[in-house]
Amino acid sequence: MAEQTQERPDPYLWLEDVEGSEPLAWVRAHNEVTKAALCDAAFEADKRALYEISTRPDNIPFITRRQGQLYNFWQDAAHVRGLWRRTTMGDYRGAEPAWETVLDIDALARAEGEDWVWKGCGTLQPEQRYGLVSLSRGGADAVVVREFDLVEKRFVADGFALPEAKGGAAWLDRDTVLVSTTLGENAATGSGYPRTVRLWRRGSDFTNAPLLFEGEASDIYISASVDREPGYERTFYRRQITFEEGISYLAREEGEPLRIDLPLDARFDVEKDWLVVKLKSDWALPERTYPADALLAISFSRFLDGDRRFEVLFEPGPRRVLSGFWWTKSRLVLTVLDNLASQIWLGTPGSPWGLEQLQGLPDTASVNAMPLDVGQLERTDEFLLTISSFVEPTKLALVAEDRRIEVLKEAPAAFDASGLEVTRHEAVSVDGEPIPYYQIGPKDQDGPRPAVLYGYGGFSVSMTPGYLGGIGKTWLERGNVWVVANIRGGGEFGAAWHKAGMREGKRLSHDDFAAISQDLARRGVTTPQQLAAYGGSNGGLLVGNMLTRYPERFGAIWCTVPLLDMQRYTRLLAGPSWVAEYGDPDKPGDWAYMAGFSAYQNLDEGRGYPPVLLVTSRRDDRVHPGHARKMAAKLEAMKQPVFFYEPDDGGHGAANKEQAAFLSALGLSFLRRTLTGTGHT
């Protein structure tokens, strides 16, 4: 290892042993201290309120459609792990649908003595009678896979079954599946994801399943997908080389799979004979150069023959980007963000294509389009919309084939929003870039209030409005302020916005967040002593850097499932898969800039820090719990105020609504204890 990246001795390296007896004893001791300090009567009231909101019987049951029946996965107070159930559209339109239980996860967990968490079911088309159910122990990414009969409502005796591993399986036909899994020798990439695709026939030993496709150990993951459209039956393989780049291949009956010649960072979809491509970078071709964020279309067969004369379906503008696209039976559905305002467009294939904006949607809400039909072979042109804002309950709507919009369900109000308003502002970052943010708080605010600044700033994830529900009840109703940051590294304004917050730009993304904190104080919304920074995962790295780089601007740091030790992150679980976002600490050129945002290394013995709450999970097999453990131990040794909590289950998110309510209430209790002027009960 080069001298520039040589690690100093780490006295807390032992805490990376996730299941070790000494680290677990340390975890449990710290859990008890945290619960003793934070789990008071106000915590219990918040937990109860949050849980009741998340388990209301009139919450929206979100749906997918298989063979004319609507399926929903539901959790409530009586079904903590959840029910997979179904009903009809006619019944669903009623106030109290009659649901038929297909699989009871609570009953299954009791019967098998397992901590099962539902991870979904992929069904075999066109009948969709048989599915491959994925179940996780405690919420980890790794799953077991079992064949399930949706008619008999039971697991298939001697059916397809895979033990716990990362990956999954896709149906090829009734007796054959394509499996991408980490099971077996040399079956995992360096990131801990599947490296191979195997053809597994019913009744055979999986260990002898023939190899169809293999990637490199340095790849992130390998996967397969099956297109069952009559007349266009195809199998695709995917090598995800980095988090941003990959290569797809078209399987052929004879010979090697055919590489699909697209830019490595482009996203694409093939439907019948149409290839639709969304670019992440400019693409220079002999005919013309297509800009980043454009959406292109061409005949797939012509493309395979070498034609590169695309039709441009969407061209980006200043702060106008395409955030998603997918197919119904005969239309392409596009979700557009125009300066963060949602639009839905419908594309009809042809020469040229037709494009039409869906009318009748609210201007101020966040609108997300999603498929209704699961089965490719039984798709219609109907689809679903969710319509939500920070302070208005979410609506679920059906878009009919004639484009009429019917509201199917509306969530109950969780809090009184009559005294609240949502406003948008911009802070100026260190390089002069205006950084937008949403502020949700009292109308005509009369002086600084306790506030939470929430952000993420990575992996092209956009922070758009969504109903605040429990936060509204436990935080906003009490006169406090909630702020959502649209910093660089996100996808709010396209590829350039994301790239500006990657790698060398990651510190700049963090500067954006700090600029918002300063703007909030300048505008009199809050004070540094009343302001908390909150984030999880990549957002945990963000707020960890607020702690180490801008401690004077915050009164508390609420940091969940975080990355913090960027010198060792590539050696911990899925860490290598994020090198494209952060850099490689073993390369001196990368570590030269990464050292500036590795929060764990940047704790300074001579500085004072605001109080910190660090939350992780023993079952998080994506971001290693060692990040949070070591940060807590180091802060504690420096005599800094820190709370730490690590449940046994939950994975990279809460295992169920009960745990989600507990963890949110824990954070709110921490804020009450630390931020000045938050003595609310």
Task: Explain this structure.
This is S9 family peptidase. Keywords: Hydrolase, Protease, Serine protease. Pfam families: Peptidase_S9, Peptidase_S9_N. The chain has 681 residues and is α+β, with helices and mostly antiparallel strands. The strands form nine sheets. It has an eight-stranded mixed sheet, with helices on both faces. Strands 5, 6, 7, 8 and 9 form a five-stranded antiparallel sheet that branches.
| Largest sheet, strands/sense/barrel | 8 strands, mixed
- Measured as a percent range, the helix fraction is 10-25%
Radius of gyration, in Å, reads: 25 Å
- Show unreliable segments: 1-5
What general outline do the C-alpha atoms trace? globular
Terminus-to-terminus distance: 53 Å
By DSSP (H or I, 4+ residues per run), the number of helices equals 13
Q: Return the average pLDDT rounded to an integer.
A: 96
Number of strands: 39
- Beta fraction of the residues? 25-35%
Protein name: S9 family peptidase
Domain Peptidase S9 prolyl oligopeptidase catalytic: 475-676
Keywords: Hydrolase, Protease, Serine protease
InterPro entries: AB_hydrolase_fold, Pept_S9A_N, Peptidase_S9_cat, Peptidase_S9A, Prolyl_oligopep/macrocyclase
Task: Name some characteristics of this structure.
single chain, 681 residues, alpha+beta, eight-stranded mixed sheet, 39 strands, 19% helix, globular, hydrolase
